[in-house]
Amino acid sequence: MRKSTSRFADRGIMFVHGLVVDPYRPVETTSWHEAQEFVTRLNVIESKKPPGAKRYRYFLPSEAQWEYATKAGTDTAYFNGNDPARLAEIAWYSRDGIGPGRTMPVGLKLPNANGLYDASGNVWEWVADKYVSDPTKLPAVDPKSDGDKNAERVCRGGSWYSGAQGCRSARRYDDSPDYRVNDRGFRVARALVSP
């Protein structure tokens, strides 16, 4: 795993599980494979907790999990409604070609009803699923993989470089799992596995 995964880390730089990160900005310039490796490292750390301690399983969310968490009970284009003019309340994005030109610190925009910040914009987030052009054809039980680690993977949420359409809650994007660019990152999910 590379030591630095962030093009825009410029303040408060620290090391987290072998990565150089800015604790205020999302991790970006990260491939799907690197996101999976990070999750694996977190799970190794969890496995070393003493008996009786709370243990979590970390993972990239599936597309369905990501969309459910992001929409937070809404059925609108963005979790704060359908009006692209209100997108600036919740997302860092490019409006008419004008935007921040880089990732921005997380938590400066309004969160959704689930308390998630930057669920739209800032960085496209890798999810676990391989890309299928028609998501209604995905298996209901485990759409994440058929064992092909090189299959195109899904990104969700839009980025600082995206227009308003790219930041819609239902917007999907596909890319090679090895692809790295400064508007791709990831969000880690966790589930309690022992009390």
Beginning-to-end CA distance, first to last residue:
31 Å
Largest sheet: 4 strands, mixed
Residue fraction in strands: 15-25%
Mean pLDDT: 86
- How many DSSP E strands? 8
Element-level helix/strand string: EEHEHEEEEE
Shape: globular
Roughly how many Å is the radius of gyration? 17 Å
Which short descriptors sum up this protein?
195 residues; alpha+beta; paralog of FGE (formylglycine-generating enzyme)
Write the layout of secondary structure elements.
Blueprint: E1 14-16, E2 19-21, H1 32-47, E3 55-59, H2 63-71, E4 124-130, E5 153-156, E6 172-175, E7 184-186, E8 189-194
Parallel strand pairs: 4-7
Antiparallel strand pairs: 1-2, 3-8, 4-5, 5-6
